[in-house]
From TrEMBL:
Its cofactor is pyridoxal 5'-phosphate. Keywords: Isomerase, Pyridoxal phosphate. It comes from Pseudobacteriovorax antillogorgiicola. Gene3D superfamilies: Alanine racemase. This is Predicted amino acid racemase. Residues 7-224 form the Alanine racemase N-terminal domain.
Length: 357
């Protein structure tokens, strides 16, 4: 059976490195938990780190977080859908918003629940995912400031989420200037300027960060320790908090080349056969995980001599080269994972989850 493992000690080490970094910079930050898909076993480990804030893009996940820790501050980090308004007010202390009509619905619901719901307005900085345009900023805030049951606490932005636009000092200065404009126009200080995510961390280390940007939302760096500018792991952090252990369910010497008339497989792929492959054989094994759970491009074998050949819905075929250690049916092969690999496995109901030390 395939098993996704979370290493408790490595997760804690990554958290401590980030906490130290932000503490020195005087910046608050929230842990982004959407990767965990609301799994309570793994959420408990994250909450045991004692983060001040947890951010997620699914209401069901925020409900699970509040059930585990009713006192922790929760943030809904995408524009709310109409059908989710009631639950967002109930389970999210803060929400990120880009639509005036949506904030009006949040206002009405907050009053019904006798709450004050906090909002951060997201602004477009060029990546062209969510965010209002700069020329609409003043009018937008003017309308939101009038709403009852709503407290506007900040401004924020996302980069590198759709078109790969990387953060830069100029982009962050632009966000800081928008904050200053709102403060000056309306005579009040926005509490939160949320301009940081994992992709922005290298700029913080290089001291290219405007002082007014005071909030980060961190997921990928916590779970993978990754510097998205270089693709390498940050010093002192771990890239293998998560690992997949997949069981070998078949192990056989087989020909390299398929036999018969070739057509497209269920994924729409038609193999290309090299002439020399018809005379070759290789040791192949099948592991009990497939495309239903993960795209093989998001997993990397931990051991030498293990090469992924292809996948079907619930099996992945692997070639074991001469460099591979001896394996037997029933043993497991371990894989390191990228963010999207863990996300697929977390979303699969067929994958067992486990916390290890």
């Amino acid at each position: 059976m395939a098993l996704l493992q979370m290493n408790r000690a490595k997760l804690r080490k990554n958290y401590e490195v980030l906490e130290s970094k932000f503490d020195k910079a005087g910046i608050s930050w929230g842990v982004v938990s959407k990767l965990l898909c609301g799994d309570k076993l793994f959420l408990k480990e994250v909450l045991s780190l004692k983060p001040k804030q947890v951010c997620d893009s699914r209401v069901k996940n925020l409900r699970a977080i509040k059930q585990l820790d009713p006192e922790i501050e929760t943030v809904y980090i995408k524009p709310p859908a109409k059908k989710s308004i009631r639950n967002i007010v109930q389970f999210a202390d803060i929400s990120f918003n880009t639509e005036l009509r949506t904030i009006r619905m949040l206002s009405e619901e907050a009053q019904l629940q006798c709450k004050t719901h906090k909002v951060v307005i997201m602004i477009e900085l060029g990546d062209l995912r969510e965010g209002i345009l700069g020329e609409d900023l003043i009018e937008f805030y003017q309308e939101v400031f009038r709403l009852k049951g709503i407290r506007v606490i900040g401004i924020g932005a996302n980069l590198n989420c759709l078109n790969g636009v990387m953060p830069s000092q100029d982009k962050l200065i632009q966000l800081a200037l928008y904050k200053n404009l709102i403060d000056a126009k309306f005579g009040q200080q926005l509490q939160l300027v949320s301009g940081g995510s994992t992709v922005t961390l290298p700029l913080l280390s290089k001291h290219k960060f405007p002082k007014s940007i005071n909030h980060f939302r961190i997921g990928e760096a916590l779970y993978f320790g990754i510097n998205l500018f270089t693709g390498k792991t940050f010093k002192g952090m771990h890239g293998d908090v998560f690992q997949l252990r997949a069981e070998i369910i078949e192990l056989t010497e087989k020909p390299f080349a398929p036999v018969g008339v070739l057509g497209a497989n269920p994924s729409g792929e038609t193999p290309e056969i090299e002439p020399g492959d018809f005379q070759k054989t290789g040791l192949r094994c099948i592991i009990d995980v497939g495309l239903l759970d993960i795209d093989p491009k998001f997993m990397t074998p931990c051991d030498k001599g293990v090469e992924i050949l292809g996948a079907s819905s619930d099996m992945i075929v692997i070639e074991l080269t001469d460099d591979a250690k001896p394996y037997r049916v029933g043993e497991t092969i371990n894989f390191n994972l990228s963010y999207m690999g863990v996300l697929g496995l977390m979303a699969s109901k067929y994958i067992e989850k486990e916390v290890i030390e």
